[in-house]
Write a structure and sequence with these properties.
CATH class of the largest domain: Alpha Beta
CATH superfamily of the largest domain: Stage V sporulation protein AD
Number of domains: 2
Distance between the termini: 44 Å
Radius of gyration: 19 Å
Shape: globular
Number of helices: 10
Strand order of the largest sheet: 1-9-14-13-10-11
Order of helices and strands: EEEHEHEHEHEEEHEHEHEHEHEH
C-alpha cells in the first residue's frame, strides 16, 4: 500500500526557514525565520550560496529545537543540483549520517515522510529533514545562463531562493505526523520544460486521491491542503482533474507556488523549486498548526523528474508527488526547546561558515 499510517508517535519538534530577498517581500514575509539581504549570501558563486543557506537552515532547525548536533541521528534531504551536491556538501560539514534523496521539488515531503517512518518505528529519536533551492543555480543548470537574459514564457515559474528543515522527534509536541503516502511516477506526455505545473498536476491528483481513499477522508476533513509548486496554471489543472474524479478542492486548498509571491512580483505562474514547499511548510503551515489554528493539514510536495539531457532528447516530463498528513494534538503537549547548543559545536560550525 502506498499509504503508511504511523501507529507510533512522530512529532515535529521545530521547523526553520530561510528565503531570498524577493521571497522576503512576498505575502508570507512575516512567517519566515530569516530573509537574506542579497542572494549571494556573501559567497563567490550561487552554488556556494545555496550550500551555505542549506547549512543555516539545518543548524537553525536544530538550534530552534533546543538540541545539539550530536542529538540528531540522521539527516534526510536533497536538492536540485546535479548529484544533490548542496545536500552532500552540507552533510560533509555537519558530520551527520546522511540519506541523500531526490524527488526534485517533491523532496521536502519525501524527506519528512521517511524521517517520520524512522521515528515511528523506533529507529531514531531525532531526525532532521529538509531541502533548499537557489534561483540562480537552478536557472543555469536547467535553462540558460542568466547573462543571456532569455525571455520567459507566460507558463513559466520562478525557482525560489529558499528552503526549510524540520526536526522530527519521538518527543511529544503539539504537531504530529499521522500518515504518509509515497506517490507513483505519472506522465501525461507534457514535454514543455517551461510548463512544470501541467507536468506535475496529474501526479498531485493521483497522490491526493490515493491518500484520501486510503485514510478514508475527503478534502473537507482538512483545514488546509497545500501542493508543492504547481503554480497558478498547474493548480487550476489539478482542481479540474480532481473534479473529473468527483472530488472537490475547496477554499482550504492552495499551492505554495501561488502563496509565495504577490501580484507586484513578475514571476508569471508563481514559485517553484524544492525549497518552495519546504520554506512555506516550515514557516506558515507549521506555525498555523502549532497555534492550533489548523487542526489537520495535508502537505503534497510535487516534482518534475526531468533533466537537461532528457529534455534535449525530446523526452516527456514524469511527475511525482508525496503526501504527509499532520495534525494538531493540543496545547497540553509541551516540549523543552531551551537547551543551548554545546559551545564547542557552535565554534566549530562558525569556522565552517554556517552563520552569516
Amino acid at each position: 500500500m502506498q499509504t503508511i499510517v504511523l501507529k507510533n508517535g512522530a512529532y515535529i519538534r521545530a521547523g526553520y526557514s530561510i528565503v531570498g530577498p524577493l521571497e522576503g517581500k512576498g505575502p508570507l514575509k512575516d512567517y519566515f525565520d530569516y530573509i537574506l539581504k542579497d542572494d549571494t549570501f556573501k559567497e563567490k558563486t550561487f552554488e556556494k550560496s545555496e550550500r551555505k543557506m542549506f547549512k543555516n537552515i539545518l543548524t537553525g532547525a536544530i538550534e530552534k529545537a533546543g538540541l545539539n548536533i550530536d542529538d540528531v541521528e540522521f539527516f534526510f534531504g536533497g536538492d536540485l543540483l546535479n548529484q544533490i551536491v548542496s545536500s552532500s556538501y552540507t552533510a560533509r560539514e555537519l558530520g551527520l549520517p546522511f540519506v541523500g534523496l531526490y524527488s526534485a521539488c517533491a523532496t521536502m515531503a519525501e524527506s519528512l515522510a521517511l524521517a517520520s517512518i524512522f521515528i515511528s518505528n523506533g529507529l531514531a529519536k531525532n531526525v532532521v529533514a529538509g531541502t533548499c533551492t537557489h534561483f540562480s543555480s537552478a536557472e543555469r543548470q536547467y535553462r540558460f545562463p542568466l547573462e543571456l537574459g532569455n525571455q520567459r514564457p507566460p507558463t513559466s515559474q520562478w525557482t525560489i531562493t529558499g528552503g526549510g528543515a524540520s526536526i522530527v522527534s519521538n518527543v511529544k509536541s503539539n504537531v504530529k505526523v499521522v500518515a504518509v503516502t509515497f506517490g507513483k511516477v505519472v506522465d501525461y506526455g507534457i514535454n514543455d520544460v517551461n510548463n512544470m505545473g501541467a507536468a506535475m498536476a496529474p501526479a498531485a491528483c493521483d497522490t491526493i486521491m490515493t491518500h484520501l481513499q486510503n485514510v478514508k477522508r475527503s478534502p473537507r476533513d482538512y483545514d488546509f491542503i497545500a501542493t508543492g509548486d504547481l503554480g497558478k496554471l498547474g493548480s487550476e489543472i489539478l482542481i479540474d482533474l480532481m473534479e473529473y474524479n468527483k472530488m472537490t478542492l475547496g477554499k482550504n486548498y492552495s499551492d505554495c507556488g501561488c502563496m509565495m509571491y504577490d501580484k507586484t512580483e513578475r514571476v508569471f505562474m508563481g514559485g517553484s523549486g524544492a525549497g518552495c514547499s519546504a520554506s512555506i511548510f516550515n514557516s506558515y503551515l507549521l506555525k498555523k498548526l502549532q497555534s492550533g489554528e489548523f487542526k489537520r493539514v495535508l502537505l503534497v510536495s510535487t516534482g518534475a523528474l526531468m533533466s537537461t539531457t532528457t529534455s534535449q532528447q525530446g523526452d516527456t516530463i514524469p511527475g511525482i508527488a508525496h503526501a504527509v498528513e499532520l495534525e494538531y494534538v493540543g496545547d497540553d503537549v509541551k516540549i523543552d526547546n531551551k537547551k543551548k547548543w554545546d559551545s564547542v559545536k557552535v565554534k566549530q560550525l562558525a569556522k565552517a561558515g554556517v552563520k552569516e
